[in-house]
Structure to design on (422 residues):
């Protein structure tokens, strides 16, 4: 799907014509952001974190990612490609990244800046910040995870690493380089991210830690794949890669943690259901002597994004071949962490799950919800359109649903009417 740049908030959308009203999506959403009402799903925007899990599980392909195509950015005088490290893992028999980078120039980009290059700088900055933060330090690289923490885990907000993502850092550094080389104004340079997932697309228009992103847009990795496949057969030029093993490794789960080198007590987890489980345990204080936590919403890490083309397990194997002859790292910070790598706004808890009103009103609503919950069957069947009975009770209190929407309660009422008529 193509849209006008910067005109949307969420990148995960619903095609109501394709939706069949099944309950696969409501059961898998990590923030309970989907309801089925009147036979169609509905996404609650204030709860959605754009993780893409509903896209992954929808059998009718009713959930889609809204993104742009390359031609949407033709108005820029200079177009910079920002290839995610996971892009390299999509191709067969690839032993170096230069072929992919040369292909990017042949399909219409004027230059490139490897996100893996920026990732190595983020790894270096993380090592410098580790001793000044509460443990465990939680990676801020996956925007879906950061939004999940922001909405569901208030006790962990201060543990999130206050560094911009490699994607954002790559755009900032790329624009600086191109401006110095060409003399072009910043607004004439378009930095386009080649994205493996919807969460990063949403991040461009809703950046974490800053008011505005330097990334000017994105294209889907699956759209770039066939164009690159053709261009890579006979590249018209040779280029030099600028990232080593540490940067490329960010493409798969555990890669960021391994790149810290000196940090031994770390936990790496991928897959949104596993991420939720780990965050719950972290908030409950079940982990001890843990220094760093790397969390990726997609299974296998970024190679498992819904906008990729390769099986994530195969992609991880391909990454090993690409990394084999690379230096450990090709980028590091000269001195202290520069300001352009740090957030300029704090991460603030967004209580989207809390009931509205003053303290007394909230207490009354919670009391009513608990009473209603006791009358529900506790089956978590989903036929009411909500993922669980507790979630349904919450919907009723908020006025989003009626008690009679529960099929068990409706049946009980019908049975009473039937008995009265007999």
């Amino acid at each position: 799907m193509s849209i006008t740049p910067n005109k949307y908030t969420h990148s995960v959308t619903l095609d109501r014509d394709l939706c069949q009203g099944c309950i696969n999506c409501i059961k898998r959403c990590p923030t309970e952001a989907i309801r089925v009402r009147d036979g169609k799903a509905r996404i609650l925007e204030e709860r959605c974190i754009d993780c893409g899990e509903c896209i992954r599980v929808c059998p009718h392909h009713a959930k889609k990612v809204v993104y742009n195509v390359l031609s949407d950015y033709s108005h820029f005088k200079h177009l910079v490609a920002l290839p995610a490290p996971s892009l390299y893992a999509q191709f067969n028999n690839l032993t170096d990244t230069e072929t992919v980078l040369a292909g990017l120039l042949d399909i219409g980009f004027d230059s490139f800046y490897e996100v893996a290059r920026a990732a190595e700088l983020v790894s270096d900055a993380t090592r410098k910040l580790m001793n000044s933060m509460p443990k465990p330090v939680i990676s801020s690289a996956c925007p879906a995870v950061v939004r999940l923490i922001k909405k569901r885990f208030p006790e962990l907000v201060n543990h999130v690493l206050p560094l911009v993502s490699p994607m954002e850092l790559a755009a900032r550094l790329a624009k600086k380089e191109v401006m110095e080389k060409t003399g072009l104004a910043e607004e004439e340079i378009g930095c386009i991210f080649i994205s493996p997932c919807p969460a990063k697309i949403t991040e461009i228009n809703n950046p974490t830690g800053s008011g505005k992103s330097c990334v000017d847009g994105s294209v889907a990795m699956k759209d770039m794949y066939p164009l690159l496949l053709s261009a890579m057969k006979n590249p018209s030029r040779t280029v030099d890669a600028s990232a080593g093993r540490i940067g490329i490794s960010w493409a798969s789960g555990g890669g960021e943690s391994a790149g810290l080198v000196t940090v031994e007590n770390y936990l790496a987890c991928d897959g949104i259901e596993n991420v939720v489980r780990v965050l719950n345990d972290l908030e409950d204080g079940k982990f001890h002597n843990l220094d760093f936590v790397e969390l990726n919403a997609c299974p296998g890490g970024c190679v498992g994004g819904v906008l990729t083309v390769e099986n994530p397990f195969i992609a991880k194997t391909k990454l090993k071949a690409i990394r084999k002859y690379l230096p450990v790292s090709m980028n590091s910070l000269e001195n202290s962490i520069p300001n352009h790598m740090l957030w300029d706004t704090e991460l603030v808890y967004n209580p989207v799950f809390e009931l509205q009103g003053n303290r007394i009103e909230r207490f009354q609503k919670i009391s009513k919800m608990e009473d209603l919950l006791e009358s529900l069957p506790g089956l978590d069947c989903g036929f009411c359109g909500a993922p669980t009975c507790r979630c349904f009770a919450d919907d009723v209190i908020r006025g989003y649903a009626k008690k009679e929407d529960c099929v068990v309660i409706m049946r009980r009422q019908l049975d009473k009417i039937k008995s009265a008529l007999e």
The longest strand covers residues 189-195. Residues 1-8 have pLDDT under 50 and may be disordered.
